[in-house]
Design goal:
This protein has 167 residues and is mainly alpha-helical. It has two domains: 51 residues, 2-Layer Sandwich (Herpes Virus-1), CATH 3.30.40; 108 residues, no CATH class. 57% of the residues lie in helices and 5% in strands. The chain contains five helices and two strands; from the N terminus they run ββααααα. A two-stranded antiparallel ribbon has the order 1-2. It is elongated. 28% of the residues are buried.
C-alpha cells in the first residue's frame, strides 16, 4: 500500500496529514483553527462567523456619521477642560459606541469598529487642523497634548464598546 504525500491547500509546499473537519481540505498547522468539534480551515471558520454579522450598509453610514460628529464636537470642546478630560473622554467614547450600537438596531458588523475609529479620527482632525497649523507655525507642537490624550481615550472608549463588549 503506497501513501501519497498530501500538501496544504493554502501552502502548497507544506506536507500535512491534517484535514479540515468540515470541508476535508488538507491544512497545515498554520491554517488550522481549533474548534470544539476539531480543527477547521480559516475559510470554514470565517464562513461560520459570517452568520453572526448582519449589519447593513446603512449601519456603516450611521456609524460614520455619529463618529464624525463625536470626533469633531468632542475635539472642539473637551480638550479645553484640561486634566478632567482623562475621566470624561472614555465616557464620551463609550456613549458614542452605545449610540452607534442602538442606532444600528444592535446589528453586528465585522468592520463597524474600524469605520467608527476612522471616522472619529477624521472628525477630530477637522477640529484640530486650524490649531495644528498655528502650533506648528509657532514651533510648539506640545500644545496639542490634551487633544491627543482626548482622542486616544475617546477612541479607546469607542473600541471597547463596539469591539470588545459587542464583538
Amino acid at each position: 500500500m503506497s501513501e501519497t504525500t498530501v500538501y496544504c491547500y493554502y501552502h502548497p509546499d507544506t506536507p500535512t496529514t491534517l484535514r479540515c473537519n468540515r470541508c476535508n481540505k488538507p491544512i497545515c498547522w498554520r491554517d488550522a483553527v481549533r474548534t470544539p468539534t476539531g480543527y477547521r480551515c480559516k475559510t470554514c471558520v470565517r464562513q461560520q462567523q459570517d452568520i453572526f454579522f448582519n449589519a447593513t450598509p446603512i449601519d456603516y453610514v450611521v456609524t460614520a456619521g455619529v463618529a464624525l460628529f463625536v470626533g469633531y464636537l468632542g475635539q472642539r470642546i473637551v480638550p479645553q477642560l484640561g486634566w478632567f478630560l482623562i475621566f470624561l473622554a472614555p465616557v464620551i467614547g463609550g456613549i458614542a459606541g452605545e449610540v452607534i450600537w442602538q442606532l444600528s438596531r444592535k446589528r453586528r458588523g465585522r468592520y463597524v469598529w474600524i469605520v467608527a475609529l476612522a471616522s472619529l479620527g477624521v472628525g477630530a482632525l477637522f477640529a484640530v487642523l486650524p490649531k495644528l497649523q498655528f502650533m506648528l507655525a509657532a514651533g510648539n507642537p506640545l500644545g496639542l497634548l490634551w487633544d491627543l490624550v482626548y482622542f486616544g481615550l475617546a477612541a479607546a472608549g469607542v473600541f471597547a464598546r463596539l469591539k470588545i463588549w459587542r464583538g
